[in-house]
Amino acid sequence: MVLTAEENRRLTEVGPGTPMGALLRRYWHPVAAVGEFDHSPTKAVRLMGEDLVLYRMPDGDFGLIEPHCPHRRANLVNGYPEVGGIRCSYHGWKFDLEGRCVNQPFEETVSDATRFRDSICSPAYRAEAKFGLVWAYLGPDPAPLIPTWEPFTYENCFRQIVLHVVDCNWLQCQENSIDPVHFEWLHDNWYAGRGGETERYRPPHAELGFDEWEYGFQYRRRHQGEDETYDSWLDGRLCIMPNLFAPLHFEWRVPMDDTHTLSVVWVAERAAANREPYVQDTIPHWWGRAIDDDGKPITTHVLGQDVMSWTGQGVIADRTKEHLGRSDRGVQLFRNRLIADLEAVERGEDPSGLVRDEAANLVIEFPNSLRRLFVEPPTPEQLEQRKRRLKQLMPGSRPEDFFFLLEGQPDWVRHEWEYATGQRDDRPTTSEGV
Fold first, then answer.
1. Pick from 200, 205, 242, 236: which is nearest to 222 by CA?
2. Residue 59 sits in a domain of what CATH number?
3. Hey, is 295 helix, strand or coil?
4. Which residue of 151, 179, 245, 343 lies most exposed, with the fewest beta carbons within 10 A?
């Protein structure tokens, strides 16, 4: 399925008024971590080509509004969140959650007329905090529900949120979520290939399987020498519409605009038995690094290797020059679903994967048995075995670093993980640097 230039634009352009922009606006997207607002009540965000201000009110609820006050264009990122909305810090105009101007202090002091105030409204959107993340919805009413994927409901887990910006279009990031063979060459063989040690290459893939699911796709894979009892064949990985990879951890590829993507990673790991009940008041968050200070890719971690490959395709991959093979069946399935969803939205229908049934959304189970990894606490032996596997995957990382996805985990987050998993007895008391 080689795309024409027009078909490629249709799938990659996300701004207001574009077909893909209209589709993506039908879904909730994570745009920040709740913990970011412990230090400042406002944050500038960019989502699908729109610059916005996300703010937390004193009651803990969130709002999302166009950044420039319609009075004299002051930036509301410097505003004062109040119950029910945000007030501009320049002249005190206040706007409610729907962007309506509800107070103009000087104008209302000198006149009882409200016609001027009532004529002013700024673009505003829904925002909601859930699962340690702040979500944004830019689409039409009625809004769907934020999906309660089953890992969100697991108890006694250490969780962390990692954010980073990828300098390319969202689609080439998400296509990675349905591309199983890349793991063999980009991740398993990275150090051997770069070191010229071809004899250390992993056995090649022998079989791939793709299963369609209500919310997207599941892919399964096995290498030569592996039978159908192997974990990677029995319990596949999930590409969830439109921009989520799961299930052992979550990776959202949130379009900021046509050439930048916010990567949001949400990870849960089972706590040790002697830490039960393990509860986090706030899920720690941090900003990961995929590029070093010299502008070179950081390839010691899995997502760093991914980012190197995504950005290497160009800011927007030219799919007119592709030559797709049998290993790309998942990419073709995903593109076909996107095209079908685009057409559904243009007909005035819902795209696939939306959740509107509150009963069904109590917990949405995944079509595999990987939940077993989160039910029983790991033994010390199992934890050490996992750490050895991680070091085989990321031998170039710091000796104390066992977070395999991105470089830059703060020491205090690592210490909390060590405490949660029973590797140390002293629990950190500071979140400095988060």
1. 205
2. 2.102.10.10
3. coil
4. 343
Domain final position from 107, 137, 167 = 137
Task: Between 390 and 415, name the one with better pLDDT.
Answer: 415
Q: What does the alpha-carbon distance between residue 63 and residue 99 come to, in Å, rounded to a whole number?
A: 9
Q: How far apart are CA 310 and CA 171, in angstroms?
A: 9
Q: Are residues 373 and 341 in the same domain?
A: yes
Instruction: Take residue 297 and report the two structure tokens written for it.
Output: 């890719």
Per-residue exposure over 410-427, b if at least 16 CB sit within 10 Å of its own CB, e if not: bebbbbbbbbbbbbeeee
278 pLDDT band (50/70/90 cuts)?
A: very high
3-class secondary structure, 104: coil
Which amino acid type is present at position 403?
Answer: F
432 pLDDT higher than 50: no
* Buried residues in 45-67 as b, exposed as e (16+ CB within 10 A): bbbbbbebbbbbbeeeebbbbbb
What three-state secondary structure class fits 290?
coil
- E runs forming strands in 277-364: 285-287
How many structural domains comprise the chain? 2
Bridge-based pairing of strands 62-65 and 124-130 is antiparallel
Rounded CA Rg of the chain: 23
Whether residues 109 and 255 fall in one domain? no
3-state secondary structure of 167: coil
pLDDT in tens, 306-349: 999 999 999 999 999 999 999 999 999 999 999 999 999 999 99
The answer to whether residues 247 and 380 belong to one domain is yes
Cα separation, 372 vs 209, in Å, equals: 22
Which tokens belong to 383? 């934890």
Tell me the pLDDT of the chain averaged across its residues: 95
125 & 244 share domain: no
Q: Tell how far CA 186 is from the center of its chain.
A: 21
Nearest to 376 by CA among 225, 293, 271: 271
Q: How confident is the model at residue 2 (pLDDT cuts 50, 70, 90)?
A: confident
pLDDT score at 430: 61
